Amino acid sequence: AILALVEAGMGVALVPRMAARERREDVVMRVLEADRPRRHVVAAVRHGAESGPAVARVLAALTESARSFN
């Protein structure tokens, strides 16, 4: 949605690298040459389900995957 606004001439946006993979004809992506910003990511789990073994495995996999983003 944000890239559609940029494409329509409604502004400039900071987007995650994943969003930069989406190519649009009238949008140019520029890498910012500054210290890399950090983002804190959290996992949302339904109340009462956070102690289940399946959820624990998924959270462990997500944690491992998140390490590759730093």
From TrEMBL:
UniProt key word Transcription regulation: yes
Alphabetized UniProt keyword annotations: DNA-binding, Transcription, Transcription regulation
Transmembrane segments: none
Gene3D superfamilies in the record: Periplasmic binding protein-like II
Annotated GO CC locations: protein-DNA complex
Family under the similarity heading: Belongs to the LysR transcriptional regulatory family.
The keyword Transcription belongs to this UniProt entry's keyword annotation: yes
Gene Ontology terms, MF aspect: DNA binding; DNA-binding transcription factor activity
Residue ranges constituting the LysR substrate-binding domain according to the UniProt record: 1-66
Protein name per the record: LysR family transcriptional regulator substrate-binding protein
InterPro entries linked to this entry: LysR_subst-bd
SUPFAM superfamilies from the UniProt entry: Periplasmic binding protein-like II
